[in-house]
Write a structure and sequence with these properties.
The two termini are 40 Å apart. Helices cover 42% and strands 19% of the residues. By secondary structure, it is α/β, with parallel strands linked by helices. The longest helix is centred in the first third of the chain and has 20 residues. The strands form five sheets. It has a seven-stranded mixed sheet with strand order 5-4-3-8-13-19-18, sandwiched between helices. Strands 1, 2, 9, 10, 11 and 12 form a six-stranded antiparallel sheet that branches. Strands 6-7 form a two-stranded antiparallel ribbon. α8 crosses α11. The chain contains 22 helices and 19 strands.
């Protein structure tokens, strides 16, 4: 299959109205799960066991705070965790597993049975993938996982596929937890500049080209789709007079959000004005100009979802972006990154201002230059949004940009502590960089350092797959204690397995590890899992034959070597072993 799509916009339009956002949606709709399973769009940084555990602990802190304040939580009602743009569903798998572990360790009552995780995406094929995925079925059967097709910028209700419940405005009794990774940067944005005290809107003219082709994969005969979007934009900027600022978002958003967005525009205009610069003694003092994005698509999604729960929610989002407004200084066009699809830099500071304008507060990452910046925002629903919230309720432009600045935070002490421990002390981005250093930069990492990284990762199976050859080559020389650790760790790694791609046959590689540990029976179990999940392969049958031969089960070994040769008649290793068994030359057999 090959396809090509070209779109040309001859006129300039508001960025959020641009055709490029529908081009992106068409890309993800066409690719489905293959966007991530085939590596077209990178995903490991937000879909691993480490980040799943980190998010679960932050969520648990929030739930404990709610539970300890009976006015905020009804234990008889469901508590919904809603993941936007959930993609593969892998993060949900890790979060739900980690929440189970948290429940088992806490001495206080933790209402895990009332938690329902809802995976959402706008692509029907992704929803079908979740419904059919074996790793998710136990959570579905327990009533703890549901699915919904949801278009983040346009829908305002959730129709749950499993329970049949329809979540509409005001029907959710408990606060929500909303999760969105690499979502802010892919939903629609508006472009603004402040130049010498004048607020300008950025207009865009788009020329896009989408190309792709399918090539057969050598492993397991799977289809490997490669597709990419290339966009070339032209920008122009026009001034917005003060009277127009107050009506800029009229009819684009609900009236209450029009008010909040107006406050945000006035905040940025004032912050980057000459007068504000003259008063600040900040080391970032630069000419009075700035270029920034307003994540209008994400703000629309937050409004739709938080209306379900009467404005009460914890929002956790990880993305590449900025939370310090001083990063926006200077006049530049928006930066776009291309990775199969495309994305922009997330303006977390604007989301913070939005939540604060609604009476909430923010927990911001203390890192700046990172690939994945994780931030959390809390909306308490305590304020009356029908009453105009003046810009003075937002932090003063000269204030420290990262101040939480909320009297609400002390009521959420467990959440704040968990965020500090799980994000600021050692973040998911820190873990990602550490594992990448070992995988890509270390020539021959020791078995002990690999084991330590596996433990830190919460026994992530994809990390194991990356380092499998380093493990297998060193296992025969390992100490008894190290072998014992890897034997136990292999079972933990497998418990984290989430199938996406036959090309990553984790069960086969764990079978090799167990063979190196002389755990023949366990090795056979993993090889059989490899056959069941990824299909027959001549090497798998050959290795199973070695296990049976090591157990002195020569009849079973012979059958495996015969099957190996049936799959690949010229496979010399299987033929040699088969001949040796027939000649009863077992003593001359060598190791794998």
């Amino acid at each position: 299959m090959s396809f090509q799509q070209e779109v040309t916009e001859k006129s300039f339009t508001r960025c959020s109205d641009s055709e490029m956002w529908s081009i992106m949606m068409n890309f993800y709709d066409a690719q489905g799960i293959r966007s991530w399973s085939k590596g077209i769009v990178p995903s490991f940084v937000t879909q691993n066991a480490f980040i799943g555990r980190s998010y679960a602990r932050v969520i648990a802190g929030y739930i404990i705070d709610l539970y300890q304040n009976k006015n905020r939580f009804d234990p008889a009602e469901k508590l919904y965790l809603i993941e936007l743009g959930a993609g593969t569903g892998k993060l949900a798998f890790y979060i739900l597993k980690s929440l189970d572990e948290i429940k088992n360790r806490l001495n206080i009552h933790f209402p895990v049975d009332q938690i329902v995780y809802v995976l959402t995406d706008f692509t029907e094929s992704n929803v079908i993938f979740w419904e059919e995925h074996e790793a998710l079925k136990p959570f579905v059967q327990q009533g703890r996982l549901d699915f919904a097709k949801f278009e983040a910028e346009n829908d305002d209700s959730l129709s749950l596929r499993v329970s049949g419940n329809i979540l509409t405005k005001g029907t959710v009794k408990n606060p929500l937890v909303i999760i969105g990774n690499y979502l802010v940067d892919t939903l629609s944005q508006d472009i603004f500049q402040i130049d010498k005290g004048v607020l300008k809107e950025g207009l865009v003219s788009v020329q896009a080209k989408e190309q792709g082709s399918d090539n057969g994969s050598m492993n397991h005969s799977t289809e490997n789709t490669r597709c990419s979007i290339s966009i070339q934009n032209e920008y122009k900027y026009q001034a917005i007079i003060d009277e127009q600022i107050d009506s800029y978002y009229k009819e684009y958003v609900l009236p209450c959000d029009e008010m909040h967005l107006t406050h945000i525009l006035h905040w940025y205009k004032k912050y980057f004005s000459s007068e504000a610069n003259a008063k600040t003694t900040c080391c970032h003092k630069t000419p009075d100009s700035a270029s920034l994005l307003i994540p209008i698509g994400f703000i629309k999604a937050l409004r739709a979802l938080t209306d379900l729960s009467c404005g009460r929610a914890l929002i956790i989002t990880g993305d590449k972006g900025a939370s310090d407004p001083n990063r926006f200084r200077g006049l530049t066009d928006p930066h776009m990154a291309f990775h199969g699809s495309f994305s922009v830099m997330a303006n977390f500071h604007a989301i913070k201002l939005y939540c604060m304008s609604r009476g909430g507060f923010a927990l911001m990452s203390d890192q700046d230059e990172v690939s994945l910046m994780v931030n959390a925002f809390v909306l308490t629903g305590d304020g009356n949004e029908a009453i105009s919230c003046p810009p003075s309720s937002l932090p003063a432009p000269a204030a420290t940009p990262l101040d939480v600045n909320s009297s609400q935070a002390p009521a959420y002490q467990n959440l704040c502590n968990a965020f500090e421990d799980q994000v600021n002390s050692f973040s998911p981005n820190d873990f990602y960089l550490m594992q990448r250093c070992m995988v890509e930069e270390a020539r021959n990492p020791s078995l002990s350092s690999i084991l330590s990284l596996f433990k830190l990762s919460n026994w992530d199976c994809e990390l194991f797959f990356k380092l499998r050859e380093n493990v297998i080559s060193q296992i025969p020389r390992a100490t008894i204690g190290m072998k014992s650790d890897f034997e136990a760790g292999s079972k933990k790694i497998w418990s984290n397995y989430y199938h996406l791609d036959n090309d990553k046959d984790v069960a086969f590689e764990l079978g090799r590890v167990m063979f190196g540990l002389h755990c023949w029976e366990e090795s056979l179990k993993f090889y059989q899992l490899s056959v069941d999940i990824c299909g027959q392969h001549h090497i798998t049958q050959h290795n199973m034959g070695l296990c049976y031969a090591s157990l002195n089960k020569y009849q079973e070994a012979t059958a495996c070597f015969v099957r190996s040769l049936e799959l690949k008649p010229d496979y010399e290793k299987a033929a040699t072993w088969l001949e040796q068994i027939k000649n009863k030359e077992i003593a001359s057999l060598t190791k794998l």
